[in-house]
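[User] I have long wanted to understand how a fold can be written as tokens. Those tokens are not coordinates but codes from a learned vocabulary of shapes. Could you go through the record with me and say what the backbone is doing? Thank you; the sequence and its tokens follow:
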Amino acid sequence: MKALFSLPRRLYEWTLKWATHPKGVQAYVFICFIESIFFPIPVDPLLMALCISKHKKSLHYAAIGCVASVIGGIAGYLLGFQAGDFVMGYLGDNHFIAKAAEMFKENTFYAMFIAGFTFLPFKVFTVSAGLSQAPLVPFIFGSIFGRGMRFFLVGGLIYFFGPTIKGFIDKYLEKIFLALMFVCILFFVYVKFLK
């Protein structure tokens, strides 16, 4: 049981080790890809470590991470889409699946934007979107904007302020994401209901 609870910490430490590895960038791209499908550890610590090691390449790392993550998200969508019949047959008439399908069909872009930008599990949204047969175009654009803002926020801060920003990011990154997410939700409510 103890080994089971220590697994996330071991995965986290294993992920960070790639920052100093000669093939660290390739590992980063691969982890960005699989993190959008099933990998349980967020890629942000590795992105941060790579950016700090070569802070003038921070925007480059943010860009390739965003691309890999969105492609991984599309793979997750296709997995959910292809496995839909199997999952629905296994789960039967599931209330959560029905609600997810309704949410994606109404606001796929915003759902994916919020999932991509915040600490919500992006992988759950990518596979669920495919399972719900959400429209693909807003799924892709929502993923691009959400993942792009998240990756470029970290990469941009380190690019412009250098490694000294690490302590600030470590301490406030989640609060920054939550504040920006709150602004995005307010904007969505305004456009949807008040405009």
About this structure: The chain has nine helices and no strands. The chain has one domain: 53-194.
